[in-house]
């Protein structure tokens, strides 16, 4: 089955700097790659996603890149702010167009003011 | 829409007792997912439904766990008998067939003592 690895497990950056989180997946049939942000005491919230026919997608300070050949995708946050501090999860869709998502282990991002 | 609604938010029970977690998905969403989150294992998919029918229950840890979706607006996850290792945060999420993007509930924090 699909396996998603996420790095780093923790990331500390200064406010205003950029943060990059990377994920690799194992199943070449995966075609949907979302990123979720989880704040303390809340459920994960979808912040951006990308599909396999697109290489890069941006939404204000957040961008995601996808390399299908290498089977990895990354989340880029620019001009980080303290409110970006949270746990971020990447995910990949299962094979055979199944609608289940397999999640990475999460990255705890701390933005220091 | 009020989003995905889970109840209770917190549950403390004694080992051996039956526990029932409840979920109301977003109206119009035809997929419903149950995930379990722990520090050690991250976000694990337990089971998911499409149009109230269980599609994949391969993540259900053992026969003590069962899930039902009697109608499009309600699902339950039951643990009987509960054990201390079942302590975790249980999330319900829903999505539409045409859009992978999951919406998660706020979760139920289960503590089995």
Structural features, described:
The complex is a heterodimer of chains A (113) and B (113). By secondary structure, chain A is an all-beta fold. Chain A is built from no helices and 11 strands. In chain A, the strands form 2 sheets. In chain A, strands 2, 4, 5, 9, 10 and 11 form a 6-stranded mixed sheet that branches. In chain A, strands 1-3-8-7-6 form a 5-stranded antiparallel sheet, with no helix packed on it. Chain B is mainly beta and 113 residues long. Chain B has no helices and 11 strands. In chain B, strands 2, 4, 5, 6, 9, 10 and 11 form a 7-stranded mixed sheet that branches. In chain B, strands 1-3-8-7 form a 4-stranded antiparallel sheet, with no helix packed on it. In chain B, strand 5 and strand 6 (53-56) form a beta hairpin. Chain B is globular and about 40 Å long. The mean pLDDT of chain B is 93. The chains are: A mainly beta (113), B mainly beta (113). Chains A and B meet through strand 4, strand 5 and strand 10 of A and strand 5, strand 9 and strand 10 of B.
Index terms:
heterodimer; A: mainly beta; six-stranded mixed beta sheet; five-stranded antiparallel beta sheet; 11 strands; B: 113 residues; mainly beta; four-stranded antiparallel beta sheet
Give a brief description.
The complex is a heterodimer of chains A (113) and B (113). With 113 residues, chain A is an all-beta fold. Chain A is 0% helix and 56% strand.
Spatial shape of chain B: globular
Q: How far apart lie the N and C ends of chain A?
A: 41 Å
Number of H- or I-type helical stretches of chain B = 0
Query: For the report, how would you describe the main beta sheet of chain A?
Result: 6 strands, mixed
**Alpha-carbon Rg of chain A, integer:** 14 Å
Beta-strand content of chain A = over 45%
> How many distinct beta strands of chain B?
11
State the major sheet of chain B.
7 strands, mixed
Strand content of chain B: over 45%
